[in-house]
């Protein structure tokens, strides 16, 4: 078909690959999809801890190439660094990054989908490079693996988040304010790390103190779940510290918080502030931090051809992949409806937390709740099934190249809500 609309997708990790594949499914012959990312593989971040605790380098098992899926859809891929977005002229400037010295190019779009995620601001935490650990990419995951297996002396471990600075704008829908970007990982790690310590005869839950900048850790899990989870965590012997306000610095013997207190610790496992990329700040379609302003159909109110999905979108609170996945389904349907002149009814984003966490020994937890957003759903289950679902999602995502069928999430909700062993 002539005069196909060009949909330009920036970023190709979870949100970018998923939206590109859904767009192809929804509008196939009517669009030309171009995807830009600086790397040509997916980093399957949520499973990094599981690989680390099984003594695998996560880079060997969790990076998978996506180009064959884009190619089979007929989508074009450009490996390049995105450098700026000119929304007035509908152009994106980028520099190919296969070799140093490439000249800057630009590309025009009819629709732009921003799926660039965020910068994880470890560089703003004094002492992190020397004394900090984390699990948010394969490099850091492998550092933890090496430390645990070769250097860990059985000392205390602190585990928690720096203060997240959520973006504000009067143009955003009303959503709750989060003081930490994503506290599922510290909760999950508390369980799976305690299991690793026990298995390796190096300690147990008592070695670990969880901390949070907020009143309560994992606030987005809602009151009902937290009333069950927190007493259980305390009974197991974990230390717990709230209202730290943020991290002031980390040093060899411990961590100092912005509330003036400190904790001694051999290992400091940290999740930082999720910050928008510096080139996003100040653009005419972002909030005061640089996250992309959208409505609940993932569309910018001032630039209707601009959409955002995943961590880069202001409304993705907390910064979790399952929200991004729902946003990708919505954005691709909205764009397809418009291009194809269809009238298919699309529901706006109904934010909720859908989360599977590893607890060690092939068990996991499952949370399904919208209570924090004012809803009534609140389900917490623990057992073998959530672990199977977590591993199953990774296999399905890798096998289908991000094209998880529309029944994928609802089916895992049904299994998670009703059939836990
Ligand atoms: C340890 C950990 C565990 C987690 N566990 C879960 C979980 O169990 N469930 C869950 O739902 N969520 C989980 N999350 C959150 C989840 O990983 C993120 O929400 C998800 O990765 C966001 O996807 P995204 O595609 O929006 O952004 P990203 O995954 O950050 O991808 C952004 C992409 O954009 C590219 N990019 C960025 N800037 C540029 C540029 N200038 N030029 C070119 N390319 C660029 C990057 O290379 C990358 O491919 C976890 C996070 C962590 C850290």
What does the model show?
The structure is a single chain. The chain is an alpha/beta fold. It has three domains: 5-118 and 276-340, FAD/NAD(P)-binding domain (3-Layer(bba) Sandwich); 120-273, FAD/NAD(P)-binding domain (3-Layer(bba) Sandwich), CATH 3.50.50.60; 352-421, no CATH class. The chain contains eleven helices and 22 strands. The strands form six sheets. The chain has a seven-stranded mixed β-sheet with strand order 7-6-5-2-1-8-19. Strands 10-17-11-12-13 form a five-stranded parallel β-sheet. Strand 15 (254-257) and strand 16 (262-264) form a beta hairpin. Helix 1 runs parallel beside helix 9 (321-340). The longest helix has 20 residues, at 321-340. The N and C termini lie far apart (51 Å). The structure holds flavin-adenine dinucleotide. Residues 11-16, 36-39, 45-46, 48, 81-82, 115-117, 135-136, 182, 184-185, 277, 310-312, 319-322, 324, 355 line the site of flavin-adenine dinucleotide. Flavin-adenine dinucleotide (FAD) binds at residues 11-16, 36-39, 45-46, 48, 81-82, 115-117, 135-136, 182, 184-185, 277, 310-312, 319-322, 324, 355.
Secondary structure blueprint with pairings:
Layout: E1 5-10, H1 14-27, E2 31-37, E3 41-43, H2 48-53, H3 58-61, E4 63-65, H4 67-73, E5 76-86, E6 91-96, E7 105-108, E8 111-114, E9 119-120, H5 128-131, E10 132-133, H6 138-151, E11 157-161, H7 184-199, E12 208-211, H8 222-236, E13 239-241, E14 247-251, E15 254-257, E16 262-264, E17 267-271, E18 274-275, E19 306-308, H9 321-340, E20 353-360, E21 363-369, E22 378-383, H10 384-400, H11 408-418
Parallel strand pairs: 1-2, 1-8, 2-5, 8-19, 10-17, 11-12, 11-17, 12-13
Antiparallel strand pairs: 3-4, 5-6, 6-7, 9-18, 14-15, 15-16, 20-21, 21-22
Bound molecules: flavin-adenine dinucleotide.
Residues 11-16, 36-39, 45-46, 48, 81-82, 115-117, 135-136, 182, 184-185, 277, 310-312, 319-322, 324, 355 line the site of flavin-adenine dinucleotide.
């Amino acid at each position: 078909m002539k005069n196909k609309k060009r949909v330009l997708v920036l970023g190709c990790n979870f949100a970018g690959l998923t939206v590109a594949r859904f767009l192809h499914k929804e509008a196939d012959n009517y669009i030309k999809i171009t995807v830009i990312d600086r790397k040509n593989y997916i980093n399957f971040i949520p499973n990094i801890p599981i690989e680390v605790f099984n003594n695998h380098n996560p880079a060997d098992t969790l990076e998978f190439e996506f180009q064959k899926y884009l190619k089979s859809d007929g989508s074009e891929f450009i490996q390049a660094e995105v450098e700026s977005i000119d929304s007035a002229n509908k152009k994106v400037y980028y520099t190919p990054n296969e070799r140093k010295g490439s000249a800057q190019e630009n590309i025009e779009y009819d629709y732009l989908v921003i799926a660039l995620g965020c910068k994880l601001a470890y560089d703003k935490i004094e002492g992190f490079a020397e004394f900090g650990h984390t699990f948010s990419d394969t490099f850091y995951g492998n550092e933890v693996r090496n430390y645990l297996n070769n250097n860990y002396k059985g000392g205390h471990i602190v585990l928690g988040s720096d203060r997240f600075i959520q973006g504000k704008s009067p143009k955003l829908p009303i959503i709750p304010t989060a003081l930490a970007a994503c506290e599922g990982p510290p909760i999950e790690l508390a369980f799976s790390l305690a299991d690793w310590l026990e298995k390796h005869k190096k300690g147990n839950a008592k070695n670990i103190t969880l901390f949070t900048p907020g009143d309560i850790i994992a606030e987005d899990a809602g009151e009902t779940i937290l009333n069950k989870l927190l007493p259980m965590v305390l009974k197991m012997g974990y230390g717990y510290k709230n209202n730290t306000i943020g991290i002031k610095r980390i040093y060899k013997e411990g961590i100092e918080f912005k509330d003036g207190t400190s904790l001694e610790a051999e290992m400091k496992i940290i999740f930082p502030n999720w910050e928008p990329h510096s080139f996003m700040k100040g653009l005419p379609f972002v909030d005061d931090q640089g996250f992309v302003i959208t409505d609940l159909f993932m569309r910018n109110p001032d630039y209707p051809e601009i959409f955002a999905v995943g961590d880069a979108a202001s409304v993705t609170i907390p910064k979790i992949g399952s929200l991004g996945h729902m946003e990708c389904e919505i954005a691709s349907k909205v764009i397809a409806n418009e291009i194809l002149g269809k009238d298919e009814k699309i529901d706006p984003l109904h934010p909720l937390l859908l989360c599977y966490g590893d607890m060690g020994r092939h068990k996991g937890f499952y949370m399904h709740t919208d209570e924090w957003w004012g809803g009534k759903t609140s389900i917490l289950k623990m057992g073998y099934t959530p672990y199977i679902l977590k591993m199953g999602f990774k296999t399905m995502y890798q096998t289908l190249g991000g094209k998880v069928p529309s029944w994928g999430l609802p089916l895992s909700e049904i299994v998670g809500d009703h059939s836990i062993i």
